[in-house]
Amino acid sequence: xxxxxxxxxxxxxxxxxxxxxxxxxxxxxxxxxxxxxxxxxxxxxxxxxxxxxxxxxxxxxxxxxxxxxxxxxxxxxxxxxxxxxxxxxxxxxxxxxxxxxxxxxxxxxxxxxxxxxxxxxxxxxxxxxxxxxxxxxxxxxxxxxxxxxxxxxxxxxxxxxxxxxxxxxxxxxxxxxxxxxxxxxxxxxxxxxxxxxxxxxxxxxxxxxxxxxxxxxxxxxxxxxxxxxxxx
Amino acid sequence: xxxxxxxxxxxxxxxxxxxxxxxxxxxxxxxxxxxxxxxxxxxxxxxxxxxxxxxxxxxxxxxxxxxxxxxxxxxxxxxxxxxxxxxxxxxxxxxxxxxxxxxxxxxxxxxxxxxxxxxxxxxxxxxxxxxxxxxxxxxxxxxxxxxxxxxxxxxxxxxxxxxxxxxxxxxxxxxxxxxxxxxxxxxxxxxxxxxxxxxxxxxxxxxxxxxxxxxxxxxxxxxxxxxxxxxxxxxxxxxxxxxxxxxxxxxxxxxxxxxxxxxxxxxxxxxxxxxxxxxxxxxxxxxxxxxxxxxxxxxxxxxxxxxxxxxxxxxxxxxxxxxxxxxxxxxxxxxxxxxxxxxxxxxxxxxxxxxxxxxxxxxxxxxxxxxxxxxxxxxxxxxxxxxxxxxx
Lengths: 232, 392
Hints:
The structure holds two protein chains of two kinds.
Chain A: E1 4-15, E2 18-30, E3 35-39, H1 46-53, E4 61-66, E5 69-70, H2 76-86, E6 87-90, H3 102-113, H4 117-130, H5 146-158, E7 164-168, H6 176-193, E8 196-200, H7 204-209, E9 212-217, E10 220-222
Parallel strand pairs in A: 3-8, 3-9, 6-7, 7-8
Antiparallel strand pairs in A: 1-2, 1-4, 4-5, 9-10
Helix pairs in contact in A: 3-4, 3-5, 5-6
Chain B: H1 2-32, E1 38-42, H2 45-48, H3 53-56, H4 60-71, E2 76-90, E3 95-103, H5 105-113, E4 123-125, E5 135-139, H6 140-145, E6 153-159, E7 165-176, E8 187-191, H7 192-199, E9 206-211, H8 217-230, E10 235-239, H9 245-283, H10 285-293, H11 298-334, E11 337-338, E12 347-348, H12 355-381, H13 385-389
Parallel strand pairs in B: 3-8, 5-7
Antiparallel strand pairs in B: 1-9, 1-10, 2-3, 2-6, 2-9, 4-7, 5-8, 6-7, 11-12
């Protein structure tokens, strides 16, 4: 069974009298354990696609099944729980809470889940150590470099052991060296822990690392440039 | 938070001042006007006493019996007869009307020394003395009208209880201050013996009772009523509030002022909290989006902002207690003087420290902070996650 399945998904936005389609009749299937890149020019619908896959936005039309569940039937609270338990997010601008330390930022998803503070801190610390941030657990984001902040964001995305990590341009704000290490890290986690990664990017190093590349143009999926036929 | 602290402080300092005012008014009503906590009249005196004084005066035997019953109650610290009268006072050339009261001089001292807030030297001259019945006190305004100085002599004329005219010589033993301007040129205080001689009676029109505490008033009234009834004494009892309508009126006025101040301050506090929380929501839209993306439910966002608001109220209240304590301490140390409207000499201004006010207004403040956070918190919780994440 596919982990994520889109059938004829369309997403439209209203701009006054005008209706703009960000996605048009998209069909897509992503299996567990895949390392999928979404590529395309600006305005092609990459972020909209990731938002729908990540359950923070809804299709205007079409069907989206996540882990076998028709997401249209889910309440807002149920989607929240699904995001919290089964999804992880990595943002282009890291989106760390500035007043919290690295450790506290990573603890957030576990605390939302209702885990006791001690357990949450222990698991968050382990993730940060795994990502080489042992020395920075008590630092606030403004004391960390861009690469370190993105590592903290990755730790936060992975701390709940999600099925899928959704990453929107995860290396866009990083220098070349740091971007390379982040790409390697994501790939490593994908291989070692079997976590599915779906990300949008313009970064060639990430594109080179993907199992499967999905190309978006004007809200439509074009043929994959590389992969095993996942593109429908 | 400063707005909360200073608003809370202002309300409580004003509340402390109001409590002080109430106490001052109460003291004035019970001790200043010599009415005591309870006053006993012969049944019907208040309605018909003026028309037929003889019938509604307490006779010496009745006075003795009433005082004996009163003294059986341990809460009664003083039971003393008084006699009201009116007439003319003349210096031989000019005359004017007066309103007089015959009192036991020893009891008068006992009543006045029980004052705490308004204890000031209210007269010039020497104290009244039961052994010197013609030594009287006149208000300064009355003395001015008939040109009387201390130790000057004058003649007072009044109707006896039988309706005859009687005149007696008096010596001005003391000049007194009367706070009420309407009475400033009319008051005369005399030893009870003098009043009895002037009115040609051995009775009195009332018995004034002083109790240990204000709070005992109604209990003693009930017990005394039963005891007097059992003794077959036709007496009616009035408490100090019933005999002091000005106390009730002034208290209502201060209650209203306090209410307005309370409302104004709390409106300011609520607006401040709404503003603070709205700013917090605006500044954290992206963070709210992030938390929602990570799985925080809408009610979780509500709880977060509610807690923040609660904390704002709690800490603001604690700071406000500091402001209140500082203000209270400054007034206690500096002892600024002021002249209340019912007095003619300045007395030390006080602000009472009222824990009940502090606790109640703290609860109200915290409640209002929570209430004020509802609208901004709901706005935060309803944020579209995608738009919030894209907010710059």
